[in-house]
Structures are given as C-alpha cells and as structure tokens.
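S.,

Sequence below, as promised.
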Amino acid sequence: QVQLVESGGGLVQPGGSLSLSCAASGRIVRIVDMDWYRQTPGKQRELVASISRGGITNYSDSVKGRFTISRDNAKNTVYLQMNNLKSEDTAVYYCRAQVVTALPAMVDAWGQGTQVTVSS
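The prediction came back faster than expected:
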C-alpha cells in the first residue's frame, strides 16, 4: 500500500506564487516517475509537469517558464513551485507517482488533490 499526501494549495492573487508538495509513504522500494496533474470541473485531468528519477523534467506549454517541478528521492517527495499564477491555473492539483513496491509490483499512486485558486 502506497499513500501520497499533498499540501500547499490555497488562494493567491494573479501574479502570485504557491508551492505544492507531495510526500509518498508505504511499502516503497523505489519511485520512478512523479507528476503533477490538474483538473477543473467538467474537464479531463491534464498533465502539468513530470520528473523522472534522474531529474529529467517536462512541462505543459501552458505552464512552461512559470512552474518548476523538483523532487527529493531520499524523502520520496515531489514539489511544484508555481510563479506568476494566472486565473486559468485555478484547479485541483493532484500528484501521481509510479512506484515499485516491496511485493514486488509497479503501481500508480495518486494523491487526494489540493485546491489552487487564483483570484483577486
């Protein structure tokens, strides 16, 4: 069993910054990829940013240059630094981890989601 716990969401004004974190726990041998997704009502969940175990990152075009994903492998934690936030960034943000467990098995684990609201 693997659990992901997110923190750091909230309300921020346009142009402001927020930092999200997501910590994984449980029977973890190794975490491969870690991602941040977001979802707004009535829309599909979209990939925002991803990072490999080795630190290779990818971003959606809508956040490139404004968001930074990073991870601490020793802490099984992924971060998302969000700068110059826009109203269209308002969404529930979810972290996802591709986890090798002690069974062994490969599982996709998801966090519970954290709300980010960008509004004046």
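The chain has a mean pLDDT of 96.

Coffee later?
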